Fold this sequence. Notes:
Helix content is 33%, strand content 24%. It is an alpha/beta fold. The protein folds into two domains: 3-178, Peroxisomal Thiolase, Chain A, domain 1 (3-Layer(aba) Sandwich); 182-331, Peroxisomal Thiolase, Chain A, domain 1 (3-Layer(aba) Sandwich), CATH 3.40.47.10. The protein has a five-stranded mixed sheet with strand order 1-7-6-4-5, with helices on both faces. A four-stranded mixed sheet has the order 8-13-12-11, sandwiched between helices. It is globular and about 60 Å long. The mean pLDDT is 96. The structure holds oxa(dethia)-CoA.
Amino acid sequence: MSSAELSVFIRAIGVHTPERTLTNAELSKMVDTSDEWIKTRSGIAERRIAAPDENPSDMGAKAAAKALERAGLTPTDVDLLIVATMTPDVPFPSTACLLQAKLGLRRDIPCFDVSAACSGFVYALQVAKDMMRSGSYRRVLVVGTEKLSSVVDWSDRTTCVLFGDGAGAVLLETTAEKGVGLLGNILGADGNNAELLHCAGGGSAAPATADSLRGGKHFLRMNGKEVFRHAVRVMAESCERVLAKCDVKSEQVAWFIPHQANIRILEAVASQLNVGMDRFPSNLDRYGNTSAASIPLALEEAWKDGKIKHGDLVLIVAFGAGLTWGATLLRWHETSR
Ligand code: UT7
């Protein structure tokens, strides 16, 4: 069998969330908002906030260590590391290189970041799968890790109530078994709508100056209503496209694991697909929107709760800044538990 025909599956998954919880009640003392407004409009009750010295590479390393431990593997078994993040520790080097050093991965392996905001995990999975099918990489870590609290304007009630910090990691492995693991995928982007959700400062176009800092250019800004509209349409379409590509009906999918942005987005997508919310697990109430970390966090929880079982079809779907989007259909393959 040629390596291009190998299946790629999630052998193990691990997560890490910061200890500190920020509740809606605490937020309502910081900005003009209320627990009721946040819960009704987004489904979020609380979110985790990383400590000042707890960076995406630290959280990602802990999540990855957990995945390795669950797989019964060590850091030296890893052949490639891809980190998805929109809140890198520093502009350079990559968060992947920092994580590599913290985790003690080998030095003869590639380590790099993927920048696709909330779709980053889905993008990184596909990059990993294609690289693995080249035959050069057998065991690969894909990590989604974010410290959104560092780019949120804590005086802007339209955004600060939505985001949180955390990390999730999967250990991918190749197998000769057919029809398991990552079955099919679609990815897309629309840079014409970049301004709907962006951070204007801090890059080479607008380096940090006293003026840019005073103007709050280093904070995330979002046109919530427009993003909401695009998110529902594109996530529903992405699910339909990946199902058609794999010749699978939505009734056959056991679990939909969407990017956790807003419970109303999830409800609208479920309704467009004609799927009950009982097949759309959500942890938004406890973590808010953790961008590239949100899918592995939700996936791990559904697996740990015993929802996802060997042989289940699982559809993960994401949408985010860029704009970017993507969906992956996978058949859960449990080698040990
Ligand atoms: O990962 C992908 C990125 N992000 C998303 O997916 C987010 C997508 N968008 C959303 O989730 C929703 O648009 C929001 C949750 C951000 C906002 O919900 P909405 O139902 O679209 O509210 P809105 O923006 O239309 O605001 C309604 C009202 C406004 O007041 P007026 O103009 O009606 O007087 C806002 O000023 O609610 C006000 N408002 C708030 N009130 C209390 C906005 N934020 C808050 C707040 N607390 N935190």
